[in-house]
TrEMBL record, chain A:
<feature type="domain" description="Electron transfer flavoprotein alpha/beta-subunit N-terminal">
    <location>
        <begin position="23"/>
        <end position="211"/>
    </location>
</feature>
<dbReference type="InterPro" id="IPR014730">
    <property type="entry name" value="ETF_a/b_N"/>
</dbReference>
<comment type="similarity">
    <text>Belongs to the ETF beta-subunit/FixA family.</text>
</comment>
<protein>
    <recommendedName>
        <fullName>Electron transfer flavoprotein subunit beta</fullName>
    </recommendedName>
</protein>
<keyword id="KW-0813">Transport</keyword>
<dbReference type="Pfam" id="PF01012">
    <property type="entry name" value="ETF"/>
</dbReference>
<dbReference type="InterPro" id="IPR014729">
    <property type="entry name" value="Rossmann-like_a/b/a_fold"/>
</dbReference>
<dbReference type="InterPro" id="IPR012255">
    <property type="entry name" value="ETF_b"/>
</dbReference>
<keyword id="KW-0249">Electron transport</keyword>
TrEMBL record, chain B:
<dbReference type="InterPro" id="IPR013786">
    <property type="entry name" value="AcylCoA_DH/ox_N"/>
</dbReference>
<dbReference type="GO" id="GO:0050660">
    <property type="term" value="F:flavin adenine dinucleotide binding"/>
</dbReference>
<keyword id="KW-0809">Transit peptide</keyword>
<dbReference type="InterPro" id="IPR006091">
    <property type="entry name" value="Acyl-CoA_Oxase/DH_mid-dom"/>
</dbReference>
<dbReference type="InterPro" id="IPR037069">
    <property type="entry name" value="AcylCoA_DH/ox_N_sf"/>
</dbReference>
<keyword id="KW-0274">FAD</keyword>
<keyword id="KW-0560">Oxidoreductase</keyword>
<feature type="domain" description="Acyl-CoA dehydrogenase/oxidase N-terminal">
    <location>
        <begin position="20"/>
        <end position="132"/>
    </location>
</feature>
<dbReference type="InterPro" id="IPR009075">
    <property type="entry name" value="AcylCo_DH/oxidase_C"/>
</dbReference>
Amino acid sequence: MKVAVCVNRVPDTETKVKIGADGKTIDKTGVNYILNPYDEFAVEEALRVKEKFGGEVIVISLGGSENVEVIRKALAMGADKGILLKDDSQRDTFSIAKALAEVLKEISPDITFFGKQSIDYDDQAMPSLVGELLGIPSITVVVKLEINEDGTVIAEREIEGGREKVRGKLPIIIGAQRGLNEPRYPSLKGIMAAKSKPVEEREAPKFENKTEVIEMLLPPPKKPGRILGTDASAVPELVRLLREEAKVI
Amino acid sequence: MLIGTKFKGVDFYNTDDLLTDDEKMVRDTIREWVDEKVIPIIEKHYMEGTFPMHLIPEMAELGIFGATLPEKYGCANLNNVAYGLIMQELERGDSGIRSFASVQSALVMYPIYEFGSEEQKNYWLPKLARGEKIGCFGLTEPDFGSNPGGLRTKAEYKNGGFVLNGTKMWITNGTIADVAVVWAKLDGVIRGFLVEKGTPGFEAPEMKGKHSLRASVTSELVFQDCWIPEENILPKAVGLKAALMCLTQARYGIAWGAVGAAMACYETALEYAKTRIQFDKPIASFQLVQEKLVYMLTEITKAQLLCIQLGRLKDQGKANYVQVSLAKRNNVYHALEIARLARDILGANGILNEYPVMRHMNNLESVKTYEGTHDIHTLIIGEYITGFSAFT
Ligand SMILES: Cc1cc2nc3c(=O)[nH]c(=O)nc-3n(C[C@H](O)[C@H](O)[C@H](O)COP(=O)(O)OP(=O)(O)OC[C@H]3O[C@@H](n4cnc5c(N)ncnc54)[C@H](O)[C@@H]3O)c2cc1C
Ligand SMILES: Cc1cc2nc3c(=O)[nH]c(=O)nc-3n(C[C@H](O)[C@H](O)[C@H](O)COP(=O)(O)OP(=O)(O)OC[C@H]3O[C@@H](n4cnc5c(N)ncnc54)[C@H](O)[C@@H]3O)c2cc1C
């Protein structure tokens, strides 16, 4: 089975985001980057598919040369080889999807994993978009996956208030949701072995952006809290405000 | 794993720039594991005085045991800096966890690798790496701690093997070990022997009543006419020097480990000081508290630089045992001071097990004593620089 995983490099979840001088990108100074957490589930599932059916796992990442770090992490976890699609420009989701689709078409994996979203721009669009561009099925927000010998795929996906069981057929794209599995730690041997695994570097195919970021905005600063009183007599007013002003009850 | 890595590290001098990408990946992997698997459970084990046995297979899976040894024995073949970073992160969790890994790696796998026969290496190293077998290192005796050269445990040649008699004390992992590396005198010369659990005449009762290293098993090893086959002698372990070579390995790891414990205490104290209000202000705004925090950061930074350079020298085969003594002595001393100051900054909360500082503080008292006491390292360095031995 040929398995591909597309991975992204994102700011650590605990980053306090500051907007850069151009007003359109984040200030990268002091930001710690990690493998996108949802991609960890994707890598883990890819490895499990390989362990069950044999074959190889190819990790793909589009971005600057720093993205090699996240490829190496996936290789340390057990993936076999990496492809870095080098590109330092600011791309929108569509042009990234176009580039990934082009490369995936050439590799033609039986199954391709993505995280269901990247925690940086939060678009949640990549797995579906790439699926559409390739004209193959995609199932995303997947929390359980079963692949049968005959090539049918049964995936359970999270939906509002419950789960949905979906059937598809290889080749397919899967967007991994938290809960799909428990990602393994890279082993120390794995980290050493990753050094000698091949990472092919090529220019990312160029495509026009369809959208452009014009400004980035931080959420408005929190208003200071209001103290209504310090004993039980404040409760009725609190309830009124929660109901009428905050509209949360 | 969505929370990312919780511990950010203390890196005031950008020492990360001195590390390779692999070294950082090794460190971050162990860091994350410690945050997720050690820190949430360690207080309970510490209070109950038990070692978290369930972590052994996980540590093995990660490849922590004998991490610097070659792949052919199932090990990761890491360099010494990466190994040190592992020790740092483990001890940031608890000195007992680091002690377990130190003993298994530096005091059991290392001597088998360095002094063992090919059969001994092939038999033991993969099992110890996989955590299927646990080892311990028996050098200290009730009457011989700082002066191990005087040890009394005796080996005599008999019936195609050796008969051991004597008692070891303070032996980490003794009760849970499947194999003990035991140092005993054969015709007056110190030699290393492998004694398996269950050998008639060998008992390893646990020592109780510790106020320190409570999440670590410490034992006596008692040998009474304990016969072991001839092939259980480590052929190349001859003289006290062999035992001391093992200690140099372990002391190196301790120098790094102490930095981890210090970082945990500093981080806790800094966060606490910024949020604890007294006299209407955060206590972090008082000069006396700042002075303590600055001391902590300064000593952590110095200790980090010592460790990295020592590791680089070790990787080049240029580190000597005196340099290792200096790092062990300095880093453990300051880590203990840092733990005490952190305890102080936390006020009454500092004594509670909601915070890690008092546990680290108590642990570091053992760390200051074992693997050569602080003062013994003073004498080692003192002798080296002056040419005068002050031991007797
Ligand atoms: C939790 C724990 C785990 C341990 N694990 C192991 C283990 O796995 N294997 C093992 O073999 N041992 C182990 N040890 C033993 C440890 O190595 C010894 O405790 C240590 O070497 C000190 O020996 P001692 O306790 O007999 O102290 P002593 O040697 O009696 O020292 C007492 C004091 O006298 C000082 N002193 C001694 N000689 C001199 C001198 N010449 N000049 C000035 N001062 C001197 C010392 O610095 C110290 O302050 C462990 C100890 C502890 C606490
Ligand atoms: C086991 C135990 C039993 C106790 N029993 C009692 C009892 O029976 N009755 C009772 O009333 N209390 C009791 N206490 C409470 C004890 O008196 C307080 O813990 C102590 O006064 C310190 O207060 P704190 O813990 O809130 O620390 P904090 O006041 O928060 O101090 C934290 C740190 O900040 C430093 N600090 C604070 N202010 C300043 C400043 N202005 N400048 C510089 N540094 C500053 C302190 O020196 C300390 O290092 C007990 C405490 C313990 C641990």
